[in-house]
Fold each of these.
Amino acid sequence: MMVLMPADGVADILDRLLDPVGRSLTPEAARRLIDLRADPVAQQRMDELADRCNEGVLTADEMAEYDAYISAANLVAILQAKAKAVLSGDVAA
């Protein structure tokens, strides 16, 4: 039986694992990372899946796809937070 870790726990682990990345960002790389957004096609698909999830009508395959988008978005959000810390001068990014 697979035991799932709460999302907060996964985010904490990712945050710790990505510390070296945050510390190695140059200001220019940090700015580019902060500006990173999903392309329109991916954003539209995420919105569709989110709507279907809220309606409770996702198939198993769609749920797996939606989970993958959420995981990727969480990873990007953590990296963007580290990039903002770099630009603000917080060396503990």
Amino acid sequence: MAGGIKGRIGRSLQETMEIHDQRRCPRVRANFQVTLHKRVPGIPGLLGGNTLDLSESGAFIKTENWQLFKPDEVTELTIFLPPDFTGMPTPLGLRGSAIVRKVDSFREGIAVEFIEKLKHFRPISMC
């Protein structure tokens, strides 16, 4: 079953792909909810954000807590894909790890490089 999910996600990314530059992995403009698994003293719960773009190897995540991240920091994250994107009846969370490559004050977010490609993130059921 997991192979089928990963195949559908990969096809969905390719079907909606817009190439913006000459990166290793082309990016798509995509707005998906993200949970950043970083605990910060004084902030209850986990940090949230939304992708502005996404590829197999990384993403740019807009978050009001961008200033709490540092370049080269490793963070775990979950990207939530809606049912209309995956073809599943409920949202699908994909959990994996990433390295913060850039903290962007102008765009108020962070550029991350996934440690493993997106297709290798662990599916998290939302039911």
Amino acid sequence: MDIRKEKIYFYLFYIVGELAFITYGHHALIAGNRKAAIDGVILTIILAVIFTALQYFEYSEAGFTISDGVYGSAFYASTGLHGLITIVPIKFKKIKICLIQFIKY
């Protein structure tokens, strides 16, 4: 299998795992299981930090920079905006909602 496909599958399963943990925490909170809910949110936060570190390492190992012309500029601008607009707000909104519910619980 191509290394690029392996990375894509890795990131796909990684993100699905994050979503599974936050969903687990949410359902545990609804069921009244506070410890499981906290565990789900903590695991989600840990995975989010690891994912951010992996993205940093991937960008630092890339064979091009943002100043290498159109390709580098387009790559970093598009991936950066994608992360800013979609990934970050979704993760932090779900985590924030769960933490607010913990405080109220």
Amino acid sequence: MTPRPQTDPYVTGLRMLARRELFSIQIRERLVRKGFTENSVDDAIYRLCLEGAIDDRRAAGAYARYAAEIKLRGRRRTLRELGEFGVNTNDAQEAISEAYAGVSEAALLSRVLCRRLTGPIETQAQFRRLYGALLRQGFEASAVVVALKSKTALTPQFNDE
């Protein structure tokens, strides 16, 4: 089977979108990487947006649900990542509010800890590593400390932090 030549960025963009929801910036980068000219990419993205095939708000909602339910990420990280995809702050906040509406931050944090821990936290180094990892995942510092303290071996060294 010989590969089909892809001469139309519009059709190529539609094929990309048929697989999964993508942001306009992702489509742009992928089309340019495939060797299409900037002008033809701009025209294709304009047409795709007019027809509703590309909708960054819809893609933001899908990404926020994925981040909350599958990746188990906190709100902050999801907001930062949506900003990196070029989603404006209001649309990103709205998508995050909808995606995390039925999700308790404490329950999400507990699920992440269950994935990472096989027993209680026994050393301060382990506590610090988990603390940093959970902050990078987008959870609030105060919630992380409470969750980690609940998973520590009962020793006075953790109660001072």
